[in-house]
Amino acid sequence: MYSKIALGNVKKSLRDFSIYFLTLAVGVALFYAFNSITQQSMVLKLTEDARSIVQLLSKTITGVSILLAVILGFLVVYANQFLIRRRKKEFGMYQILGMTKRNVSKIMIIETLIVGFLALVVGLVAGIFMSQFMLFATAHMFNATIESFTFVFSTTSLVQTVLYFAVMFVVALIFNVFTVSRYKLIDLLNADKVFQTVKVKNLTVSVLVFIASLGLIAWSYVMLKHNGMRTLDIEFAGATVLVSIGTALFFFSISGFLLRFLQTRKNFYFKGLHSFILRQFNARINTAWVSISLVCAMLFVAICGLGSGFSLVNAINSEMSVFRTYDMSASIRPNQKNELEPHNAETVDYTTTLQKIDPEWNQVIKKAIQADTYYVMDDTTTPSFTYHAIDEVGGKKLADYYGAYVSEDLKDISNRDITVMRASQYNQLRVASGLDPIDFGTNGYMVWTLDNSVAQYWKDSLAQNPNLTIQGTTYHAVGETVDKGQTQGGPLLQPGMGIMVLADQSFPKSVVSAGSYVVGTYNTTDDKEESKFREQIKKYFDDGELVGSDSDSYELILTTTTAQYLSNYAGLSAIVTYLALYIGLILFIACSAILALQQLSEASDNARAYQVLAELGAEKGLASRALFTQIGVYFLFPLLVSMAHATCAMSLMVNIIKTVGNFDVSQSIGGVVAIVIALYGGYFLVTYFAARSIIFRSSRKMQ
């Protein structure tokens, strides 16, 4: 009997359960899809490095899932409280008909299990299909191939998802039984006659608090910009506290401020149902400003997570192309027996050295290029060519080009040596990169860098005076003066702070080695060549780090393959992408559902107010637009405030991300906007139509 009643109630109240069902189903789909990544990778042709990264990603997502499960658990409890509030009178009627509170609780438990089971089934089906699409995304990120499509099903992910949501429902059921048991019969029967007490704030005080809230938020922005998000110090903590207090006060006072401000605009205030909408908004936000503030905070985290995550991925992917020209790289630190005493730039043929260490070298490596870098010194081992010389030419320091984000390492860069290399070796790298060699003449120079800020620093500085004097020789700029990442040097040779390329004929006489590099390509493009050389690295180069003895020309040789670096970059890109999407989507769903449930709960209370509107002659279309505006403003305000906070934070994150590589911020913004429209906008529309149905069902004159 109880099952039949519960099933009938679910069928009868489909509109009331719509938001609840939608949230559970989407949550289940996301939990399953993201937790099935390990199983997805099993059908992909991945390297060992990629598989280890996938395992790390899977463990990270499992840990994050626990936190997100707690958030969704609170949401499930919150949603159940809404459903109970909507049906108080119904529960009272059950008790009048002879049911005990225990029997009423049984009906609720069965209803919850029915909705939960259906949401679980629908969510799992959606999650299984979503995971198939994620399989292709994972393959793309790791540059893996899918030889034939295989339908992937993860039993582990299924068990995890069912377990998480089973715990959520058990907790929700306990809360439901406790909530129903503490209500008196008279309270249940009079539920539709009892309204939440609304304390009307003093409008003058609201205006003053609103102005103060804007001041606190603005002050926090200034503090955060000064901090630059470099470190989590007292200034950063202060900015966080101020923006939190300012946001709470903003929502505490916004309704009163808007009411007072728009009342002075009589043409607007008395037009249509504007006065009714404002009064409704004022009443609702007065009782929900705390929860709206929390929603705003979660939206801020979601927007920043998605925006910065996508931007970082774009930056990482843009830098991966720098490594693709060569198959292997070696970084050699020469053996400095004379404690870095200045000497002539005598080139040691490290390619021959590597061939002696690895007798099988020529079996795999077709061509190798060596690049030697140096520091210019005087006769007393004191650097004679530092960034300070460039600072004097341009009038600005390199640290100035990083805005608020200046690492401790960059603050003292003016006293650091500038690295130089020979034009002949640089041109070999250019030709290998598919570029034409540059004619440096007898005393030409060019700056080679991969960093955006460094490139701009050199361009601005050298624009003032393109001629530089080093050890009495005047050098003239050639070409475009700055080579921003066009020439590729492989994973280990990355001229971040800039390498100055000087003509061979006038190369400084007194230098000290800063390090040498050897890059090479395999004999064939067969994947077996990669495996062979990886085996050689383990066998002859001590798994990539070979330490030399006193009699060797080298002190340390670091050897790696480009595939290893690309795999690491792809793994980092995948981790950032999936975590940003996972956390961002769950938080957006949670925020949207909270606002939706609040509006649906208030729609039940507002039915009588709209009934009065109908009795006063308001048309259905006018009332519908009023409801649309009321719900729209309720959804829009926390989104706008969170976007303002995110804009401030993201403007600083941009400076940090720029240190990684190039990126197009419009791409990340586009992704966030798409998610906001799809999820947040979708919940808004579902809420509007559900609330409209609740209100207009209660008002015969508007049907």
TrEMBL record:
It is a multi-pass membrane protein. It is found in: Cell membrane. Residues 64-182 form the ABC3 transporter permease C-terminal domain. Pfam families: FtsX (PF02687). GO terms for biological process: transmembrane transport. It comes from the Bacteria. InterPro entries: ABC-4_Integral_Memb_Prot, ABC3_permease_C, ABC_permease_BceB-typ. The chain crosses the membrane at residues 20-37, 57-79, 109-142, 162-181, 202-224, 236-262, 288-313, 575-597, 633-657, 669-691. Keywords: Cell membrane, Membrane, Transmembrane, Transmembrane helix. This is ABC3 transporter permease C-terminal domain-containing protein. It comes from Lancefieldella parvula (strain ATCC 33793 / DSM 20469 / CCUG 32760 / JCM 10300 / KCTC 3663 / VPI 0546 / 1246) (Atopobium parvulum).
